[in-house]
């Protein structure tokens, strides 16, 4: 993205998956404040108009009743930022109140990545000997998601090997996957439950898609387990054949 210009990070993930495009982000080209947080460029919510307090109102009930936030929203309106101003003043309503939103923000595993750039690229463009790979993300229909959930648990002694965290779509393959790398046994992450991101990439990915992110060690395990697994058995083949 251009420096300081809005863009949805997940749209470049979608472009990598569907068009083979490689995208790169730094702190000035991460598209939005949530994208900067999700990619690991620290607490970018501090740079949101009005700071963290106004962001928490934006995520929940809005800034119309905030002495600090209302003039900012009105300035957005006068600048022609109608949709952003409406969400800023009335709230996205993804959480019930600013206090819950603050707890969500404080609970995010924010970090500053030890690199200038974060890149997203097609899987066949990476070189495991050269690239510092953190995670692999699939965009899948319900059948594909089912298969990945099963494969992530294949050979594991327990059954909580995949989670569905509530977060922005770009935070799932970013900081939430980074956090899984700190675990002895990283879990898979189901994403694209962020309806704002779903709206932004509907034209690219279609309506019947969720994401599955495998931290790199888990992806390698899953790849090794394909041979001899359910993927070679009739049930999976029948599902694929039924799609024509």
Question: Which features characterize this protein?
Answer:
single chain, 244 residues, alpha+beta, four-stranded mixed beta sheet, two-stranded antiparallel sheet, 11 helices, elongated
pLDDT averaged residue by residue: 95
Structural class: alpha+beta
The share of residues in helices is 40-55%
Shape: elongated
Order of helices and strands: HEHHHHHEEHEHEHEHH
Q: What is the strand content?
A: 5-15%
* Number of helices, where a helix is a run of at least 4 consecutive DSSP H or I residues: 11
Q: Spatial order of the strands in the main sheet? A: 3-6-5-4
Runs with pLDDT <50, length 5+? none
Largest sheet: 4 strands, mixed
Distance between the termini: 38 Å
Strand runs, count: 6
- The Cα radius of gyration reads 19 Å
SSE map:
Elements: H1 9-19, E1 23-25, H2 33-39, H3 51-59, H4 69-78, H5 82-90, H6 98-107, E2 118-120, E3 135-140, H7 142-153, E4 162-163, H8 172-180, E5 188-191, H9 195-205, E6 210-215, H10 216-225, H11 234-241
Parallel strand pairs: 4-5
Antiparallel strand pairs: 1-2, 3-6, 5-6
